[in-house]
Amino acid sequence: MLTISRLAAYAGVTVRAVRHYHQIGLLPEPGRDHSGYRSYDAAAVVRLIRIHTLADAGVPLARVQELLEASPDEFAAGVQAIDQELRTEIRRLQANRRRIARLAAGEHLALPQSVVDYLDRLRGLGVDERYVVLERDAWILVAAQAPQLVEAVIARKHEDLRDPDMLRLYRLLSDVSDWPADDPRVVEIVDILERRMVRGVGAGEMDGGSVDDPFVELLDAVMVEASPVARRIVTILERRGWKGWTRIERVPAERAAQIAQGN
């Protein structure tokens, strides 16, 4: 007859594990000798080895009991079912690892790959990281609130980069954070934006009609609150008869005149 420590040694487990298997009912409690110590036989060693083998293979302890008591066919079916569950869990963990790897790059947090690629393209053009971060934050809002718009807008943005005006605009915006609000280059930015607005509105590409008003205001705030220069750009555009940033609209002539007069 064996003591608990000898039983554990034969099966390659700890005494603590043996006691745990007793507590959850996997290993029946043995009789005790005249000194009150547990006394195990060879059958207990065999059962403990089987328990340890199954658990070490990844079988949940809650399923070990049914496998120990199963017929050969039931055992095979049970093992196959557990294997399928493990495969599913492995796929989930692998997907999580891929996601973690993407998150390590920073940009992938809450952004689809197409947006990340576009932001990287801006960096490749020499656009300052501060402006890239500003645009990234706006895209995070769009991806969360209007994901159905992302791919079409991104495709158009890539197309826009063929436009010399757009390339010049990005180069100007690249260090706009360092400008005073009255920097004369602000007018050049407004000129470029107005030319693009005229083309965009005429082509029906910049109306933002599928986005609700509060969200449009939020996106506009991301840009306008970025710097005093940004606020001045919007002010000049309004004086020229344009309203908004995400959803571009013509300001009625009377209102444009009032804005120009400071009313």
Automatic annotation (TrEMBL):
Alphabetical keyword list: DNA-binding
Organism domain of life: Bacteria
GO molecular function: DNA binding; DNA-binding transcription factor activity
PROSITE patterns, sorted: HTH_MERR_2
Cross-referenced Pfam families: MerR_1 (PF13411)
Domain HTH merR-type stretches: 1-70
InterPro entries: DNA-bd_dom_put_sf, MerR-type_HTH_dom, MerR_fam
Keyword Oxidoreductase: no
Gene3D superfamilies, alphabetized: 1.10.1660.10
Entry-linked CDD domains: HTH_MerR-like
PANTHER family in alphabetical order: HTH MERR-TYPE DOMAIN-CONTAINING PROTEIN (PTHR30204:SF93), REDOX-CYCLING DRUG-SENSING TRANSCRIPTIONAL ACTIVATOR SOXR (PTHR30204)
Name of this chain's protein: DNA-binding transcriptional MerR regulator
Source organism (scientific name): Kribbella italica
